[in-house]
Each structure stands twice: as C-alpha cells, then as structure tokens.
C-alpha cells in the first residue's frame, strides 16, 4: 500500500507519493504524520538561492529568488544592455555564467537587474564608501585652538609655536586665543605684541585671516596655511 502526503502548489492542493516530490524542483520542508510535507518552490532550480550576502545580514538588494517581477530589464556584468526578458530567462542566464541576478532599480518599469557576483559587489561598494569617507576627511579643514596668557613664559610660547607650525603644515587653521584675567585687561598691548611675534616667527608658513580682535576677555587671531 503506497503512502500519500499532501503537496501544496500555488493555491492548489494535490497528492504525491511519500518519499518523492511531484516535480524535481519541489523543496521538502518538514515531516507530518509519518509522511513528508512537500512545498513546491516557484523557482527552486539547482545552483540558485535567494540570498548570497554576508551571513546574518539582510541583503540590500533583491537577488535571485527574491525578485518577484514577471519580467526584468537585464544588464550584463559590465552594464551592457541585454534587453527585457522573463525573469525565469534572466535567472537561467545568471545560473549559466555562475553569477547572481541582482535588482539594482526595483522601482523601474520593468525593474532593472544586473548579472553580478553579489558578494564581490558588496565588497566593492563598501570599499568605495570608505575611500570617499577618507577623501572627505582629508579635504576637511579643522581649526586648532592654542591658548596663551599675557604672562606666558618663553618655553610655553615655543611649545605653542611648534604646535602651530605642525597644524599649519597639515593644512589646518590655527586660532590663537590670548586670555586676560582681572587687571590683565589693562595690558592688551602685550597680547597684541604676542600676536605680532607669532606672525613673525611663523614667517611665510601662515597668513592672518581677518583682524586681531577682542571677544570679551579674549584676544583672538586666526591663521591659515600660506598658499605659497
């Protein structure tokens, strides 16, 4: 006596002999009542699967089995146009060349898909992002603040001067902040002299941006790298 199990197929129910699926592309999902519960996967061909991204992470694109559109506009690995075709044909082409079918423009009509090695594609995209971020950081100019007092001694002055030279050589700007306390406000001329000495000691490596000015009890001077 043959044993029979239930097979589900896109809205229909039918019977199949236990131990076999009604079609070669059926996927066996579990066991029930001693027989096997068989579900037919719509695109379950050997050698293709729905996701090939990093394990544990959701794919950023629809790929392979996840693409539900009936037809797609296909591009080759080098973005060459291969025409509009049934998604089944596109999946066949991807399988034949050992690549993934990746949907890169899901909202287009029809969706645009490309033949890609999806893992390599994700790696290249991440590499591009890191390089762009690195270039952005390199092109960003920072303002480094150096604080002095009217009575700053020679050693501390030299330390700040060397710091300013290092910052300017890297393309950053420098903010000189001379802080006055209490009755030191009566000696603003000393702060002016410190600023002028700073400019002289830096020589051609820096240019002064704007005017030296007071903001409350602070005398500020901004320096930028010289273009020469």
Please give a structural write-up.
- By secondary structure, the protein is α+β, with helices and mostly antiparallel strands.
- 28% of the residues lie in helices and 35% in strands.
- It has helices spanning 87-97, 118-139, 154-169, 188-202, and strands spanning 4-9, 12-17, 26-32, 35-40, 62-63, 71-75, 81-86, 100-105, 112-116, 143-148, 173-179, 206-215, 218-225.
- The strands form 3 sheets. It has a 5-stranded mixed β-sheet. A 4-stranded mixed β-sheet has the order 2-1-4-3, with no helix packed on it. Strands 10-11-13-12 form a 4-stranded mixed β-sheet, covered by helices on one side.
- A hairpin with a 5-residue loop joins strand 6 and strand 7 (81-86).
- It starts with a strand and ends with a strand.
Element pattern in H and E: EEEEEEEHEEHEHEHEE
Shape: rod-shaped
Distance between termini? 96 Å
Oligomer: single chain
Query: What structural category do the secondary elements indicate?
Result: alpha+beta
Radius of gyration equals 35 Å
Give the count of helical stretches.
4
- The main sheet orders its strands as 5-8-9-6-7
Largest sheet: 5 strands, mixed
Q: What is the percentage of strand-forming residues?
A: 35-45%
Give the low-confidence spans.
1-33, 36-47
Q: Tell me the number of strands.
A: 13
Mean pLDDT: 79
Task: Give the proportion of residues in helices.
Answer: 25-40%
């Amino acid at each position: 006596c043959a044993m029979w199990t239930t097979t589900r197929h896109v809205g229909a129910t039918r019977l199949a002999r236990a131990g076999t699926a009604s079609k070669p592309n059926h996927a066996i999902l579990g066991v029930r009542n001693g027989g096997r519960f068989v579900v037919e996967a719509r695109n379950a061909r050997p050698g293709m699967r729905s996701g090939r991204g990093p394990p544990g992470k959701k794919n950023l694109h629809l790929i392979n089995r996840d693409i539900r559109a009936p037809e797609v506009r296909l591009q080759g690995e080098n973005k060459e146009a291969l025409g509009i075709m049934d998604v089944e044909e596109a999946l066949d082409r991807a399988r034949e060349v050992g690549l993934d079918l990746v949907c890169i423009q899901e909202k287009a009509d029809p969706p645009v898909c490309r033949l890609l090695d999806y893992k390599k594609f994700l790696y290249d995209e991440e590499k591009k992002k890191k390089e762009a971020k690195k270039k952005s950081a390199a092109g960003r100019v920072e303002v480094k603040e150096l604080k002095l007092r009217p009575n700053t001694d020679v050693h501390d002055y030299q330390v700040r001067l060397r710091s300013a030279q290092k910052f300017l050589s890297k393309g950053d700007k420098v903010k000189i902040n001379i802080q006055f306390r209490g009755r030191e406000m009566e000696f603003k001329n000393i702060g002016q002299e410190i600023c002028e000495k700073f400019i002289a000691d830096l020589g051609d490596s820096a240019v002064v941006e704007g005017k030296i000015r007071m903001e409350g009890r602070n005398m500020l001077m901004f320096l930028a790298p010289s273009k020469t």
